[in-house]
Amino acid sequence: MRYWLIKSEPDVFGIDHLAKAKREPWSGVRNYQARNSMRDDMRPGDLAIFYHSSTTPPGAVGIAKVAGEAYPDPTQFDAKSEYYDPKSTKENPRWMLVDFEFVAKFPNEVTLQQMKEDPSLEGMVVLQKGTRLSITPVEAKHFKRVCKLGGWKE
DNA sequence: GCCAACGTTGGC
DNA sequence: GCCAACGTTGGC
Fold first, then answer.
1. Signal sequence span per UniProt (predicted)?
2. Which tens digit of pLDDT belongs to each residue from A50-98?
């Protein structure tokens, strides 16, 4: 089982949206590395830290679970969608996604600042300077530590 | 295949 | 709103 961190802007789709929806296709990812993670490396049952970006304060707010295998992101074929990609075809889709399922909201948000200041989280990809990736792998020890800081027990 | 221009992300 | 970082595009 692998661990991940997924970023989302709470104004667009936050942990409360996921809690309400229960399950959500992670559409709109238009970055090849992030796509590759979903397409090639995620397996049903993998757990992800749900992270709020572009908000005050940014930080980890909960846990989501990979709910199924990867499949083509339907928004790439929708000319009315902001995620429409005219260069993608159904025969050869460019963008793949997985569904995420709500697992938990942390009793306490773990802010980015807290994460940066915690020595045991050193080396986490999301904390490295210049990391803009919306999906990053997380080591098991870092995952467990963030859950602990968030007050959540698996 | 290089690289300048451009667009986006995301913390501050 | 600023801007550093960095991914993508497209001309050559």
1. none
2. 999 999 999 999 999 999 999 999 999 998 888 999 888 888 899 999 9
CA A3 to chain centre: 10
Residue A137's domain comprises 3-150
Is the C-beta of residue A33 closer than 7 Å to nucleic acid chain B?
Answer: no
For residue A130, which phi and psi values (nearest 5 degrees)?
85, 5
User: Would you say the C-beta of A132 is within 7 Å of strand B?
Assistant: yes
Predicted structure pTM score: 0.93
Task: Answer whether any strand C atom is within 7 A of the Cβ of A32.
Answer: yes
- CATH code, domain carrying A13: 3.10.590.10
